[in-house]
Amino acid sequence: MANILDKVIEEQKFSRRTFLKAATAVTAAAGLEVTGTKAAHAEDFTLPNYKEVDSVCSLCNGGCGLKVMIGPDGKIARVYGDPDNPYNKGGICPKPMEMAQAIYSEHRVLYPMKKVNGKFERISWDEAIDIIAEKLKYYLDNYGNSSIIAFTSKVGQAGCKEAMKTFQQLTGIATFGTTPVCYATEKKILTSMFGQGCATNPMADVVNSKILLMVGNNNAATKPGQFHWIQEARRRGMKLIVVDVRYTDTAKNADEFYMINPGTDGALGMAMLNVVIKENIYDKDFVNNYVLGFEALAEAVKDFTPKKAAEITGIPEEAIVRLAREFARYKGAGMFYPGRGVVMTNNSSGTLLAFYSLMAILGNVGKPGAGILSHLASSYGSVKNIVPQEEVVKPERKWKHYEIYEGMEKGQIKMVLTAGNPCVTWPDSIRMRKALDGVEFHVSHTIFMDDTAELADIVLPAAHWFEVSGPQKGVNWALMWREAAHAPLGEAKSGQEFYYLLAQKMGFNMSYFVKTPEEHWARMVEKNSKVAGITIERMKKEKAVHYPCKSLSEKPKLKPLYTDLKFKTPSGKIEIQQLDKNRLKTEIAYYQDPLESPGNSKDRAKDYPLMFSTAKVAAHYHSQCQYSAWAREIETPYLEIHPATAAKYGVKDGDKVVVETPYGKITLAAKLTELISEKVVSTQPYFGLKSPYKQEPANTLFPADHDINGSFLQKNIQCRIYKA
Ligand code: SF4
Questions:
Q1: Residue 94 C-alpha to ligand 1 middle, in angstroms?
Q2: Considering only Cβ atoms within 10 Å of each terminal Cβ, which end of the chain, N or C, has fewer?
Q3: Is the dihedral of CA 215, 221, 223, 226 positive or negative?
């Protein structure tokens, strides 16, 4: 099939005069309004005292190009989508604008502080680094490297991640990023099945597709700056099917929407497999040549009939059969795009295995418009062996994500470095708060004084990504250069600088560390052949350069992975049967009720008859945007309840309602809506007790001891509700 992506990009090149129209259309698709922007923007471009800086949004992995207008006072006055960026084409969502407002708020941490008798006192960076280095040495010498852990998050940029990894290799301490609270299961299964832990296709490639199935994915709200690709694909005739427990902004754009019973998506996948195998309508040549484990798959799904799936999912049997046949009709041109509503559940492994297997046996791999979409972008590699192997310090214990709570509680973990806000973003928030409060020494490198920073012994001011230059990738697998809008406020420093200073104080070999983002990228270009042709100058000039790109003269095009049908798996094929390191057969597509649901916890079902979940909204990202007054006006915390469910519990719109799971309870204002399943109640996942919202985090309701292929459970858990 011809790849029409280049043609679409060319056709859609927007002029500055028209890009705001597009931005407004995108945000309108997400149910938001941008008013007055056009007039203000036109003015900014002509004002003599305003400066324009090219930036890239570093929030949701969308990778939207930005234009940042610096006002006469040196602060960010406006943020717009970059009309010349080939992938967001001037469209953005409210989040970067909100962040530009939040970084000047009173919640910003501007200088290092030390806690003395429960109160923070200002100290210098020198003093802070002296104290931290001394503590590090003390715990390393006396308790070993398993006594120290570090969290990072989206606060850390590319240079920070590299510096943190180098630091980790020189000390052997354990580090945790956003993997267990976002995508570990997805990455693990993609890796074992296809060989690379990322999407098989860039997002813009959806314009080549004929049919797209989105499950538990409200992309119109979570990545509004890139959602126009799905809308464009629809305009070109692609059929969009959305399956969710809520009628979302994405569902409003769909050709077909199915409200599914919570946590039962895997049953739909199993039944679709059953139909295409039973009716012999899969791609036999592709399966014979490139797929390993088909017989086991056929056996696993043979009794999973559409009738059985209909009973579990609530989706009519006929619809399941028709969907399966339609995907088979468009074999070689179909796509699957799961969202966090699938990935963060505790039956996600079986569900992802089922849908990924469906894509594989329909030959939806290695072709334009066919494959699996994800915010996990293809990797551009890294500089290998910065620390020579003989100097790499082995961790004395490999802490698993779910073990660190107990490790802190039992005093085995004595020192914690946080960058990010695990007290809000990790599950069992109260337990995390108590555990962090109990460790002997806690350093928080933070932009805002959040729930986690409040507990620290030392608080360090972190630079925001608006204030740090650096490379940024996105869902379209291009590298873009983000120019710092201005110097970090106050005494804020980037994560890269923090680890540089700490390494220097620790007496480490400083040839392993680089100080600036420019030095970080120069070393990357020199030592990582995948990006040898992507210099800073080139990124600035061309806006977005695809990788791999091995020379300055190379002009790589956007294309799916696996077009050569070579898979970096042990067999060289797509391994739909998961094999362990001894090549023993382990998992194949399966369905099980969500572990914390009435189906699997029958003894608790009468006490917890509903399911609780969280749903992302366009105005928030992780816990950062809650420090923006604009974001707070757009979104207040609520509990979405179907009116029929509310009536059962005597709840009226606006009533304070307690939502309680076997692990905790929080109170929220009821928001009655017909747009949600009667079996589910849902809230936004972002808010903290110490934030201006003063809201107990939704993660209070989830346990910390679940391990789903490296992920926690953070969606779908049985609950009950009652009026507060
Ligand atoms: S869609 Fe994502 S990358 Fe684009 S502006 Fe919004 S938060 Fe930033």
A1: 8
A2: N
A3: positive
Q: What mean pLDDT is predicted for residues 629-657?
A: 96
Per-residue model confidence (pLDDT) at position 56: 96
C-alpha 618 – ligand 1 centre gap (Å): 9
- Centre of ligand 1 from the C-alpha of residue 93, in Å: 6
User: What residues flank ligand 1, with Cβ below 6 Å?
Assistant: 57, 59-60, 62-64, 88, 92-93, 95-96, 223-226, 621
Q: Which domains does the chain have, with CATH numbers?
A: 14-92 (2.20.25), 124-180+380-419+462-546 (3.40.50.740), 195-377+569-575 (3.40.228.10), 602-723 (2.40.40.20)
CB 266 within 8 A of CB 347: yes
- The DSSP H or E segment spanning 122 is strand 119-122
ipTM for the whole complex: 0.99
- DSSP-derived secondary structure for 529-544: GGGTT--HHHHHHHS-
In this predicted structure, the answer to whether residue 336 has a pLDDT above a threshold of 90 is: yes
Closest CA to 215 of 248, 190, 189, 237: 248
Distance 454 CA to ligand 1 centre (A): 28
Type of residue numbered 544: A
Atom of ligand 1 lying closest to residue 63 CA? 3
CA distance 24 to 22: 5
Q: Which ligand 1 atom is the nearest neighbour of the CA of 88?
A: 4
Q: What is the mean pLDDT of the chain?
A: 91
The Å distance, Cα 65 to ligand 1 centre, comes to: 9
pLDDT digits (tens, 9 = 90+) for 248-284: 999 999 999 999 999 999 999 999 999 999 999 999 9
**Using one digit for the tens of pLDDT, what is the confidence trace for 590-617?**
998 887 887 788 788 889 999 999 998 9
Is 518's pLDDT higher than 50? yes
Name which residue sits closest to atom 5 of ligand 1, judged by CA. Answer: 92
* Confidence tier at 20 by pLDDT (50, 70, 90): very low
- Counting atoms of ligand 1 from 1, which one is nearest the CA of 66? 5
Query: Ligand 1 mean position to 620 CA, how many Å?
Result: 10
> Residues 148-157: pLDDT tens digits?
999 887 666 8
491 phi-psi bin (left φ>0, alpha ψ -120 to 50, beta other): alpha
Q: What is the pLDDT of residue 585?
A: 63
Q: What is the pLDDT of residue 250?
A: 97
Pocket test for ligand 1, best of 26, 34, 64, 227 (most atoms within 8 A of CB): 64
End-to-end distance of the chain based on CA atoms, in angstroms? 58
The whole-number pLDDT of residue 29 equals 38
Instruction: DSSP letter for 264, please.
Output: -
Ligand 1: atom nearest CA of 57 is 8
